Every structure is written in structure tokens, then in C-alpha cells.
Amino acid sequence: MATKRFLSGIQPSGELHLGNYFGAIRQHIANQDDAFYFIANYHAMTSTRDAERLRAFTFDVAATYLALGLDPNRATLWRQSDVPEVCELTWLLMTVTGMGLLERAHSYKDKVANGIVPSAALFNYPVLMAADILAYEADVVPVGKDQVQHLEMTRDMAQSFNATYGEVFKLPVFQLGTPEPVPGIDGRKMSKSYDNTIPIMAKGKALKKLVMSIKTDSTPLEDPKDPDTCSVFAFYALFADAEQQAAMRANYEGGNYGYGHAKLALIEAIDATFGEARERRAYYDAHPDEVEDILRAGADKARTVARGVLDRARAACGLG
Length: 320
Ligand code: ADP
Ligand code: TRP
Known about the structure:
Helix content is about 55%, strand content about 5%. It has 13 helices and 5 strands. The radius of gyration is 21 Å and the shape is globular. The relative contact order is 0.15. The mean pLDDT is about 95.
């Protein structure tokens, strides 16, 4: 049986954090053969208009993926904007997409409800995302829960195009990394836009400060505590195996174990998981040209695939 093609994109809109890791990136690193992962810099332009920051975060995403073990000999890693064919495909898909479908997008509605004045690009964000997925004939799209509706919309657009012009696009499925979003240090969903993240690459004092500020209740040290309502336990569980989780649960329920103790155990778990990646990250920071070469080679490979799909789509709808 042929391997299923995994594909996903991640926006360079801030430092990558533990929510991104457990929701999406961990699955990307675990599924690399014939996989396609890209840095969604066109999408990030819907929230940032600072060229230097966009460049810096684009490098940050690439270097973080490589440090976490993305192997460019197995998976293709590139910058979305190095394959401009996706913009043309976005147009073709827009012609078969109803306004109503886009108006129902939760992430668009949430942003508008939070006071963001929407650009046409923000409104059409899901169409570009569909083009990203369909251009590379993806089978499986590993993402966090907040992206599921976008995947459903992608399938709708592909079906609508296929029904109009014939079978051009393959329908992808999504795959979740965690059943629910990872919480941030303030208890809301961890997100770059809420300033409540623990960056994957945080370490030392900065990491300690963030972990120590995870919100907990005021149960006294001596009293038993409920692990199931505690964010510190929820974080620890992401890193720990069943036995370690059972031991931590017993600490909580036994009393005389404070949230401060649990937070120190969490810092140890974070250090143990990401220690080596931080060292590899330092290597890529010192060798940015290597990162650039990897992204360019990735774009060449990705572009060949996208070109083929776009040509079929153009022919199907009578262009050229
Ligand atoms: P952010 O909300 O921080 O801007 P992105 O929208 O760039 O994150 O998300 C990148 C990937 O990480 C997506 O697949 C998204 O679903 C996933 N993700 C983001 N935050 C979380 C979270 N708190 N828990 C689980 N997955 C998440
Ligand atoms: N919208 C995604 C996010 O914010 C990023 C993204 C862009 C993406 N294109 C994609 C994810 C294609 C999966 C597939 O996280």
C-alpha cells in the first residue's frame, strides 16, 4: 500500500509553543516519510504587517522544526510563498466557494468579535488554506482542534470543484494531536495571540518564570488536591507516561504536596523532552544559510507537485 501523504502548515506569527507542539508539531515529526510541511507566511500576513518580524518568525519556525528532528531527506519543508502557484489555485477555488461558507467560519467570526477589522485576505484565509492542501494531494492533515472547520471547508471546496469540472482534487482527512486544546498559563487555550504561551524553546529562568505563573487554586499545601481540575497536572500528563502520571496523581491526592512541587516536576519534564532540541536549535541559529538551503530545496520539490495539480485544474476549467 502506498504511504499516505501527511501535509500541514504552521504560521510564522510568533514563537512556537507547547500547544503547537502537542496539537500539531509532534504529529508532524512522527510522520515524515513523503510528508509535506510548510511555513504559512502568506497566512501570517493576515495578522502581521511587519516585514522584519515575518522574516524572523519564518526562520524561527524552520529552525525549530529542524531542531525537533524534522529530517529534510524524508520530509519536504518549505516557505509557502516560494510556491506562488497556491495563490492562483486560491482564485480557482474562490470561484466555486459560496460567501455563506466563508461567513460561517468560526475563526473569522471570533477575530471580528474580538475587534479585528477584517481584510479581504482574512475572509479568504480558508480558501488559501484549501489551496495549500489540495495543491499537494494531501491524504492526512495533522492539526489542532481549532483547524477542523477549515478542513471541512477544504473538503467542501474540493467537492464543489470536482462536481463542476470533474475529478481533479483528492479529499483529505484531518488528524488531531490532542482531543482538546492545550491550556495556556492563564487557563484559556494556549495561543500566540493571548500572550499565555510556554515556548518550546524556553529554558532556564525564563521557563521557570512561565511555569511558576501557571494559574492554580489556593488549596493549602497540606490538603489533598484534585489533579483533574489542575492545569499543572494537565501539562505534566502531556509529558509523562502512565506510571509517572499515576505517581503524580498519588502526590496530589495524598496531601502535603504543593503546586510548587508539581511545577518543578513539570520543568524537569520539559527540560528532559526538549533539552537536545535546544542544543540543535543553537546550531541552526549559527548556520542560517543551511536553513535557507533546506527551504529552497523543499520549495523546488513542492513546486513541481503544485504545478502538476494546478495545470490539471486550469485545463479542467477551460483556462489556457
Ligand atoms: P496560535 O493559536 O498560537 O496562533 P496557530 O494557529 O499558528 O497557533 O496553530 C498552529 C497549529 O497548532 C495548528 O494546527 C493549531 O491547531 C495547533 N494549536 C495551536 N494552539 C493549540 C493549542 N492550545 N492546543 C492544541 N493545538 C494547538
Ligand atoms: N491555518 C493554519 C493555522 O493557523 C495554518 C495553515 C495554513 C495550515 N495552511 C494550512 C494547516 C494547510 C494545515 C494545512 O494553524
